[in-house]
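Field reference: sequence -> structure
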Amino acid sequence: MSIDVRLDVVMAQKRIKLNELAAKIGITEANLSILKNNKAKAIRFSTLTALCRELECQPGDLLKFVEEKNI
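Structure field:
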């Protein structure tokens, strides 16, 4: 089981660039890139709140539960 971060999809839909979004929510481009590229191990609720507010979306638009299949 894992959580897939869909920030890149939402950013593309909203036509917003990484540097612009990072400046608007007050985090570094490097940290936002880690989140966008699904490399983050955690996300603060304050960051999630800022993303949802700026992108006008819900947490479920940014995060998706993915069940891993046993092969």
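Note: Strands lie at 2-5, 63-66.
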